[in-house]
Amino acid sequence: xxxxxxxxxxxxxxxxxxxxxxxxxxxxxxxxxxxxxxxxxxxxxxxxxxxxxxxxxxxxxxxxxxxxxxxxxxxxxxxxxxxxxxxxxxxxxxxxxxxxxxxxxxxxxxxxxxxxxxxxxxxxxxxxxxxxxxxxxxxxxxxxxxxxxxxxxxxxxxxxxxxxx
Length: 165
What we know:
- By secondary structure, this protein is α+β, with helices and mostly antiparallel strands.
- It has four helices and six strands.
- The chain has helices at about 10-40, 45-75, 115-120, 140-165; strands at about 80-85, 85-90, 95-100, 105-110, 120-130, 130-140.
- The strands form two sheets. Strands 1-2-3 form a three-stranded antiparallel β-sheet. A three-stranded antiparallel β-sheet has the order 4-5-6.
- The two termini are about 35 Å apart.
């Protein structure tokens, strides 16, 4: 596989991704505890109680493993490169994915930010193509503005060259 040293995301992305994981699992814990309490209240039997308890324990173990190992791997493996007429996004924790986006297939470039990202003054760049959206996460506001403008400039150059031919 071709190794290209790419641009990295902000180190704060680890914290943000950990918050996302905790929020997702918190919702699952609440659902599990609701089922657990309903099984006791409605007297559904011991099987439902023990299966739900086992499920909550498994969720806790998976949650801790994801926080400890997957999120740092995801940060380590994420990079992006703008090279000529292509944008390459490499990402993944255990399973890695490399996405190559031809610049002439880009329809829009947006910047998005939510409450967690705003806390650390970060933004996501969303590159829209006909195939879907591709996200470059957790960039500083200056870097995201610069990257958005760079992608737009490259798209305009490619479009101008295509019209010329």
